[in-house]
């Protein structure tokens, strides 16, 4: 991957959305963990947790949350965070988590019929993208959804597990004899 490709990948809206989903899974209890560390007298852990939350908030482009986490981080290191600062952080975290809440997708449960020509074409275009960890692969997700048994490949892609997605694609390709 060239530096230009890396920058394109890091600035990708698809990547940001995946990071936001991961954030919602991993940071739900961030404020509770910070408060617990403070209450346990472990300012070092509380500071580290606030620092991590600040950094992740920046990655997912949530400036207000990043600012609230920075305020708490600095306060912890100087004097200890106030209840108002912690409440502001919790409010911002909740706002962000609500904005990330999974949208209800309408799933077409009708059985899919394999169109070998279309599947081969999609697989041929997808393989090099997965092999190079190129986020342009996400542009093929709708086509993949039309091919039977591709849910696992899509799930792996959405988790940015491109190598595993490529292996699953090879296996499915053999199964379909494409």
Helices, strands, pairings?
Elements: H1 3-10, H2 13-26, H3 30-39, H4 43-59, H5 63-78, H6 83-100, H7 116-131, H8 141-145, H9 151-158, H10 162-176
Helix pairs in contact: 3-4, 4-5, 5-6, 7-10, 9-10
Spatial shape: elongated
- At CATH's second level, what is the architecture of the largest domain? Up-down Bundle
Number of domains: 2
**Mean pLDDT, all residues:** 88
- Tally of DSSP β-strands: 0
| CATH domain topology of the largest domain | Four Helix Bundle (Hemerythrin (Met), subunit A)
N-to-C CA distance: 28 Å
Compute the CA-based radius of gyration: 21 Å
- Taken as a percent bin, the fraction of beta residues is under 5%
SS element count, helices: 10
Largest sheet: none
CATH class descriptor name of the largest domain = Mainly Alpha
Order of helices and strands: HHHHHHHHHH
Structural class comes to: mainly alpha
Which range best describes the helical content: under 10%, 10-25%, 25-40%, 40-55%, 55-70% or over 70%? over 70%
Low-confidence stretches: none
What does this protein structure show overall?
By secondary structure, the protein is mainly α. It has 2 domains: 13-100, Four Helix Bundle (Hemerythrin (Met), subunit A) (Up-down Bundle), CATH 1.20.120; 116-176, no CATH class. The chain has helices at residues 3-10, 13-26, 30-39, 43-59, 63-78, 83-100, 116-131, 141-145, 151-158, 162-176. The chain is elongated. 24% of the residues are buried. The model has no long low-confidence stretch (mean pLDDT 88).
